[in-house]
Amino acid sequence: MNQGPLDLEQLAHTRGDNLTTIQSHILAEERKHPGASGTFSWILSALTLSAKVISAKIRRARIYDVLGALDSENVQGETQQKLDVIANETLLRCLGSRAGVAVVASEENEEPLIIQRNAEGDRPYVVLFDPLDGSSNLDVCGGVGTIFSILRHDRRTTKAEDSCLQPGKSQIAAGYILYGSSTVFVLTTGNGVNMFVLDPSIGAFLLVGENLMIPRKGKTYSVNEGNRATFPDGYQRYLDWAQANDYSSRYAGAMVADIHRTLLKGGVFFYPPTKKAPEGKLRLMYEANPMALIVEQAGGKAFAGKDRILDIAPKTLHQRTSVVIGSADEVDHVLRHL
Ligand code: P6P
To answer: Does residue 255's CB lie within 6 angstroms of at least one atom of ligand 1?
Structure first.
């Protein structure tokens, strides 16, 4: 007899899957470190709370008319979307009240914010984020995301910014939330990459993928070809080669969406230097570094020209970089043309 549709819980039990929430996953990870104070887990829970709040606001934005741009600009000189500010304030509020957060730095704020000069616990942290990456996609229901990077606070520094300026290989965690057809939370704490999807009916992020590995190959490249004429020659030679070898092109206009597709399907995402952005457009500290850690943890590669992104010694908080990120073989195909 047809038993009718199974709901998630029944389906999970039927399939024998455990229903693991991101909270229980984080606590299970914490228990692997006997000396753990719980501060780090507490910070991650602030990020998952922020993600739920931002996701809910984005999904109702058009209904409550909070789409569209403000008549203000952020530190990048970019027009701010209303939801950029809302997302930024949500993250600052959720992180600001958590023990262990010494400094937060946001794409939307010129200077880092000192949350607790003598943060509680012996291991204060720095959290950097792009609160709403690709926000110009909001008005057209395109993918947008939050990207974050977590460093240990360097108590020896006097200026908050100096504690932020650590190379990407010093990150102790990184992740992103993609607000797409579902809300996906992808996280690495340095031991592989795990993926969670928000079930709005129970308000929990559920584990759907452990130790993600990016396919070694993938005949898809992701770049804004509108800038092609001003790319350095090597990138143009790569595009000629790719198009002669039956590659597909996919470009969402939001790094989180393009990287997420590349992580799951393979391929290469790149943003070369252009005439308008001679250093590259993407920000090193809270876009390139976290994405590079995630992709390398999944077995991929992440370069800025010939330099490994995670090795770059940052000079300023909002500095930009070019990126070539994705499947190992596909990144190699780009690099050998440079
Ligand atoms: P372009 C979004 O504005 C962003 O910072 C990234 O998310 C995205 O990959 C890139 O810029 C898109 O830039 O010049 O192609 O619109």
So the answer is: yes
Ligand 1 center to residue 230 CA distance, Å? 16
Show the domains of the chain with their CATH numbers.
16-209 (3.30.540.10), 220-337 (3.40.190.80)
Q: Is 133 in the pocket of ligand 1 (CB under 6 A)?
A: yes
Give the Å distance between the CA of 250 and the centre of ligand 1. Answer: 13
Specify the pTM: 0.92
Q: Which string of DSSP letters, residue by residue, matches 162-215?
A: HHH---GGG-SEEEEEEESSSEEEEEESSS-EEEEEEETTTTEEEEEESS----
Name the residue at shortest CA distance from atom 3 of ligand 1. 134
- Per-residue pLDDT tens digits of the chain, which is 338 residues long: 566 666 656 655 545 566 899 999 998 888 888 888 788 888 999 999 999 999 999 998 888 776 767 777 777 777 777 899 999 999 999 998 787 898 999 999 999 988 776 655 555 899 999 999 998 898 899 999 999 999 999 888 888 889 999 999 999 999 999 999 999 999 999 999 999 999 999 999 999 999 999 999 999 999 999 999 999 999 999 999 999 999 999 999 999 999 999 999 999 999 999 999 999 999 999 999 999 999 999 999 999 999 999 999 999 999 999 999 999 999 999 999 99
